[in-house]
Predict the structure.
Amino acid sequence: MSSSCASVPYPVRTECPTANKFSSIVKVHPYRNKCGLSRRDFATKGIVAAGASVIPSTLLSQSAQGLERLPFKNDGYNFWTWRGHKIHYVEEGEGFPIVLIHGFGASAFHWRYNIPELAKKYKVYAVDLLGFGWSEKALVDYDALVWRDQVADFLKEIVKEPTILVGNSLGGFTALVAAEAMKEQVVGIVLLNSAGQFGSPNDEENEAQESPFQKFLIKPLKEIFQRVVLGFLFWQAKQPARVESVLKSVYKNTSNVDDYLIQSITRPADDPNAGEVYYRLMTRFMSNQRKYTLDSVLSKLSCPLLLVWGDLDPWVGPAKALRIKEFYPNTSIVNLQAGHCPHDEVPELVNKALVDWLATLPSTSTSTTPQIL
């Protein structure tokens, strides 16, 4: 954890799943990080792999915590054409559908320990967002609406049934905006250390009109500077030592920071668009997040929400989960002693939390699941 981030004892109300409901207990965590997930965090610390990943077969035979792991396939699993772009996704199991959405720079394979377990009871989809993983590195203007539209169309064209959306980090916020667009089909949402921020009263005041001086002189110079800086950061973020260091800073239990995970990030395909995609991601999406705030999206939803939160996350602390619950009462919280990616760090606990919560939702009964035409 950065020395600039204060660590203080922090009492947190934890809602733990029981047989039929979530009961509240209070735990005192050893520290809480006060820092949020900033644009700079994404640029310098995010799990960056703007190209598809190739993993040697020798890395595929082991598993952690005794859990079954999704078999790796160099060529991916399934592909779907969306608006002329190639989108990769994994589909396993039978039953009520669950759609898993990865975080920034990751892919469907980041759900390696969750897919096999959840697929024992449910039909599980894990989709690669446009620009990430095995999906196409399209040269488009990336913002929250691109992935919202992708996931919404995935639900319409591939899933075709009421479903639960599950997202980590950037995937969490994508799940929210997609659910808002597909209210009739999304019957529940699960967020794991989600990205996104609450709106500020000063946001509208700060949206000043762009002057000719800013448009024709300042903006071009800023873009040149950004390309130089982000080009270096993109190169740096792919170095194995850097990736391992970042992963170990956000996985508090680092046993799952293995060669499989590191090499899946550091060995992107030779895609000529990878660097440009990264530049567009950082300058477009990360700079306009405030246009799509958590409060503006949550205020339009009514379905049940589960927060599975790694309280030891140095980027997005438990205070954010508590604020979401305060704003959106139809929320259950499961607090875990884990970092930013609890689904991969403590998958056995996340899997249990998901299955227990899903069992409380009448809509997940496979016998009553209608198909959406």
